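Now for my pick.
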Amino acid sequence: MTESKPRPVVLVVEDEVGIAESLTYMMEREFLAAVGVTTLAVARERLAQGGVDLMVLDLNLPDGNGIDLLRELRAAGRSLPVIVLTSRDAEVDRVVGLELGADDYVTKPFSAREVVARVKAVLRRAHAEAVPSATAAAGLSVDLERRSAHWGATELVLTKIELDLLAALLKRPGQVLSRQQLLDRVWGDEVVIEDRTVDVHVKSLRRKIREAGGDPECVETVRGVGYRIRE
C-alpha cells in the first residue's frame, strides 16, 4: 500500500481570531496542515519543535512586532518561507519585511482564498527540485544545484527569492528583463504581486553584493523597463 504524501505544515501567526480561523479553515480545505497561534512567544515555541514548512506572519501582535521574529529567523540562517500580513498603510513594515527575506506579503483586508493561493505558490517554489545549473557573469556566479551564490570567491548570503532573482538575471547577461518577466520567472505567474516587490529585492541584493566587496551596480537599472546584469 502506497503511503500518502504528508501535508505541508503552515504556521499561522495571527491574533485576530476571526482571521486566524478563516485562514486555517481554508488551508485545511486545500489539503494543508494549518497550525494557528496568537503570539510571538508561542510561535517561537512551535518553530523550535520543527516540522513547519511555511509561516504566515502578522506583524502586529500583542507581544511585539513580527518583524523581530523574521529578523531572528534570517539571522539564524533559517530559510523558512514566510508570508507577512500587514495593514494597508504599513508600507515601511512591508519594505523591511521583504528586505529581511519575506517571500511575499498580503495587505489587510484580504480574502482567505488569496492568502491560500499565495501560500501554495510559495510552497511550490520552495519544494521545486533545483535544476542542476551554474552560471556566471560580471563577477557574480550562481549554482542552483547547491543553492549558492558568490561574488568572486566570497559567498553571498541570499534569501531564496534573492538567489532565484540573481539566477534569472545571470542566465541572460546584458539582456534587460522587465519587472513583470522577473515576477513571472521568480514568483510564478499564478499570483499577483506588485512591481515594487522586485525593486525591494534588487535593492537588498545590491546591498549584499556591496557588503561582500563587490560592485552593486553590476545589477543595472534600465529606467522605465527593468533590470539586467552588466556584461
